[in-house]
Amino acid sequence: MADETLISDAEFRLSMRHLAGAVSVITVGDGQDRTGFTATSVSSFSAERPSLIVSVNRTSSSWPALQRYGCFCVNVLAADQRDVAQSFAGIGGRKGVDRYDGAGWYRLKTGSAALEKALAVLDCKLETAFHHHSHAILIGHICAMEVRQNVGPLLYWQGGYHDLPAAADQRCLAEPIRQ
What we know:
Blueprint: H1 9-16, E1 21-22, E2 24-28, E3 35-39, E4 42-46, E5 51-57, H2 62-69, E6 71-76, H3 82-88, E7 105-107, E8 113-115, E9 120-132, E10 135-147, E11 154-157, E12 160-163
Antiparallel strand pairs: 1-11, 2-3, 2-6, 4-5, 5-10, 6-9, 7-8, 9-10, 11-12
């Protein structure tokens, strides 16, 4: 099969805007060498050896740090942490260690920065990275984790941030499908 582009980049991006995703901040590095990025490309991979997948653009300033340190923390953001998402997305020109300003941080097993009051923090050791075009697909083994209960997530959908209230966890959103 010939290497053809069936759809344009713009069409692809438009279709992905319809895919709602949890917002996470991926942190990596130490001291003044800390950096990180905002991601919706985080997914569970395996429960047998707890692991997850994260995608990162290899032109990102975080990519060299990921290679150098070999560990990272996935901080799943709570509904009230939109400012952290914007900071790590580089809004306002923030880069590197400056992205950490305005939030509280602590360390888990790998030493990567974990966000205080995040919905969940998943401290990971980088097991492997696959290169595919402009991105690297990271597989991280989860070494430590913490979860916060009764708090809603921050979601990204249609090009913007949206809150899902914690009460949504406890309401019946739909009847199960019976066959």
